[in-house]
Amino acid sequence: MDALTFAVQLLNGVQYGLVLFLVASGLTLVFGILGVINLAHGAFYMLGAYLAWAIAAYTGSFALAVAGALAISFVLGILLEEVFVKRMIGRDHLAQVLLSFGLILVIDEVRQIVFGKDVHSVAPPDWLRGSIQLTDVLSYPIYRLALCVACLILACVIFYVIQKTRLGMVVRAGAENRDMTRALGIPFDLVNRYVFAGGIALAALGGALVAPVSTVFPGMGDSMLILSFVVVVLGGIGSVAGAAIGALLIGLTDTFGKVFFPQFSSILVYVLMAGVLLWRPNGLLGKS
Amino acid sequence: MSHSISSPISANRRRFLMGAAALTTGAAGFRFPTPAIAQGAPLKVGFMLPYSGTFAKLGKFIDDGFRLYVERQGGSLGGRRIEFVQVDDESKPESATDNMNRLVGRERVDLVVGTVHSGVAMAMVKVARDTNTPLIIPNAGANEATGPMCAPHIFRTSFSNWQVCQPMGKVMFDEGRRRVATITWRYAAGSQMIDAFKEGFTRAGGTIVEDLALPFPEVEFQALITRIATLRPDAVFAFFAGGGAVKFVKDYAAAGLNRTIPLYGAGFLTDGTLQAQGADANGVRTTLHYADNLDNPANRVFLEAFKAKTGQDGDIYAVQGWDAAALLAEGLKATGGDWSARARATSAMRSARIDSPRGPLSFNRAGNPVQNVYLREVRNGRNEVISVAGQAVDDPARGCRVQA
């Protein structure tokens, strides 16, 4: 493999990793910080993609599609938190798993009724169309590069909010000790609601942003859900930075696995996870 | 008249989904009141098709195609009225045997029509063999169904995986492609299609540069697309379907490979997925036993009737359902509607010659269709015929011990 191909594969891996981080970051917030297992995360990812497609088809604007998917899913997240999820915080994981599995079925059914089950594609905005010629046969779509940049910016924003702002401090404090935070008079339940809605919105945003390169189809969230959990566990539950490192590791493992060990590529990600967990049982940046 | 049955598990969801279907079919039944002349009990046809899930649209089209044919014959075939029982197989192999047993055992259907998913179809073939129930497979392409698992009462009105891909080998070699890379999902259908293509291609004298594969149903193709650019084959042969097919064709074009390394594939790469693929699919060449602009009288009649009934454009799935009914009609005609003379009926079906919308259709000793396989190219959102890649292609039916 010459240096250029290697560099392109590296780029493929990093790009995939960044997308994985974007989707998994919402799960990190909900699972790691609220302690709620949300199996419906992949379903919201799919929903985001379908919303983006529907809005883009109606308005013709990709920016509106992304904004719309983000806004609708955020409101949906708030409603779901109010009606269901707040009862689940602190409950055993079985109840949460059952609830979110139910949500998967409902979201899937609603998607089928509202959007049907066809496969769709979403056009990227005009100024991001086209591609950069890398070799005489291979070019790289500009949208994929833009996706990388968008994921990086979002990663920085999430990181900044969690680590540097008062809101982030409250969220982290709540994750440490829920009751103590409440006792100090911090409106933790309200914060919970926004964190949950934010997590859902991040999943949907992932789906919407990925739609132009991934196409929109039923079941697109299934593999994303599993990989998102792998990212969260690998990085250390609740650690946003850990999730970022984990996502990049998985992106690179998957990409180079497919190139060098095609027969084993499907299990390499899990081998990586098992290896890391043997070495650090709480994940890369997890607290012991 | 028809009614629906469903498993007790998730019965509510299913009942909701099938309610509409049952209602429409019920209404269709009433339109043809049973004639006063005695003609015995109606023949019970069991549809075991996906009415929900990923393949629901395919199941619906097969169902529509079959019913349309029967309706056009006034609700009876060979003078025998047809009654339908439908069960949603949900494309779940794990409940396939139960569903099939329910149709054969409790509903006592005379014949089963199904299904789309190969795993489910193989379970159906097993039960059909064990209970000696006639079965017509209107889609699944698993080679085994009309190979080692063949039986005199098992038919297929679709294709075998081997059949639709093997002719492509010679086509590509004749178009000057000498070094070809293949790519698919690593699962049964994928490897059967790729193997069939390779058989045709290497026999013609071509060389396979590399077989690329990724786990089903993963859609992260980027690494392998870069790999293709590194290998620089003369062309690529691909098998994907549904959402994966759309994404692969789009990713392939986005990487610019479609300009330098032509993309070929099994017809499923572009069938039913063209709208989502858009301009990225232009120029993709595939082989299948049907094409969008097939111009023959049977196809014109079919397309017009299907559009009039459903408001949608008929496709290969509807044709396969339509032909399943046409095949049953041959059997019933031979016995004057008497299904108890089943051996005579099935042997008439074996030697049937059907004027199908896809072209001439007959059957080999294994019950697999003998049919033309067309080379199509995507032009302006349609899979247009370029040529006949294989005239009257007959699946070798390897492992089938039924004698002609």
TrEMBL record, chain A:
GO biological process terms on file: amino acid transport
Record bears the keyword Transmembrane helix: yes
GO molecular function: transmembrane transporter activity
Keywords: Amino-acid transport, Cell membrane, Membrane, Transmembrane, Transmembrane helix, Transport
Membrane disposition: Multi-pass membrane protein
Stretches that traverse the bilayer: 16-39, 51-80, 142-162, 194-213, 225-252, 259-279
Entry keyword annotation includes Transport: yes
InterPro entries: ABC_transp_permease (IPR001851), BCAA_transport_permease (IPR052157)
GO cellular component term of the entry, any: plasma membrane
Subcellular location: Cell membrane
Protein origin, superkingdom: Bacteria
Similarity section: Belongs to the binding-protein-dependent transport system permease family. LivHM subfamily.
Protein name: Amino acid/amide ABC transporter membrane protein 1 (HAAT family)
TrEMBL record, chain B:
SUPFAM superfamilies: Periplasmic binding protein-like I (SSF53822)
This protein's record includes keyword Chloroplast: no
InterPro entries, alphabetized: BCAA_transport (IPR051010), Leu-bd (IPR028081), Leu_Ile_Val-bd (IPR000709), Peripla_BP_I (IPR028082), TAT_signal (IPR006311)
GO biological process: amino acid transport
This protein's UniProt keywords: Amino-acid transport, Signal, Transport
Domain Leucine-binding protein residues, every copy: 42-381
Protein family according to the UniProt entry: Belongs to the leucine-binding protein family.
PANTHER family membership: LEUCINE-SPECIFIC-BINDING PROTEIN (PTHR30483), PERIPLASMIC BINDING PROTEIN OF ABC TRANSPORTER FOR NATURAL AMINO ACIDS (PTHR30483:SF6)
Name under which the protein is recorded: Amino acid/amide ABC transporter substrate-binding protein (HAAT family)
